[in-house]
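So, can you check what follows?
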Amino acid sequence: MTRAAIALGSNLGDRIDHLQVAVVALAACGEVEAVSSVYETAPVGGPEQGPYLNAVAVVETDLEPHELLDGLLRIEQEAGRERTTRWGPRTLDLDLILYGDRMIDDERLTVPHPRFALRRFVLEPLAEVWPDAATPDGGSVAALLPFVQDQNVSRINRRLSTRPETFTSRGGWWVTAQGVVLVAAAVALLTDAGSLAWPPWVVWLGAILAVAGAVESLLGSRHLGANLTPYPQPLSSGRLVASGAYRWVRHPIYGGIVLLLVGAALLRSSLVALIVGIVGAAFFWMKARFEEERLVERYAGYAAYRAHVRKRLIPWVV
């Protein structure tokens, strides 16, 4: 068995999903021993394009170098990689950086990778998972890091898993908590109606808020279409939606539910339902924030979209 280091990169489509699928697929090439944190970097060379997500995986393999290369090319192809432009954008890029202490230089493969020592987006994750890896000059990977500190690299708060996604990794507990909030609101509206004596204008305000919330949620659902999921983890087949209701607010479905909960509580004159509505507002604010961390990871354009559309839940309000 030989220890090999493989650099992963993606800047097209669902970037984090491409990396996650690749890490799982690497099991066909050997035992995935370690996977680094994920780093976001600006592209180096080539045409104008979006930022990359990068990581490094260390694999123990019994494949020969060219067999391993063929395996990496198959994984790239399955991810929809198209080789049309040199240094152009790509769904997935897998580079064999190191293969034990072997040195290879032929028409198909050069190992160690000829430019890895010049790129912080390779060295930093590599030093994280294999710091004592030897370089051609007899030094170590960790010793090269000080020479590339001027390059801008940002580590994101996400780890890649060697296993397929699960209920928990998709954010399933957020879905469970959301169900609890909605059930609690329904029970309160049915059992606590009329517990408060509000003036008629408050009841009318509740009706207006409830209708506005229903409309906002329905418009958000309609424009999201096939991208709709109860999980905060975006669908791997999804795309960034910035049209329709999403031109004015980033999470119209959540904001609409909040308006509906509060409006229904006022309409039914229920103190318990109003308390649940306030708790629900805090919950959906936090769920939206958690979801946005995932959206930034998956879509290169989400950070710019978030900077442009300032309101998170309710248009022109919050």
About this structure: Residues 172-308 form a domain with the Four Helix Bundle (Hemerythrin (Met), subunit A) fold (CATH 1.20.120.1630). The mean pLDDT is 91.
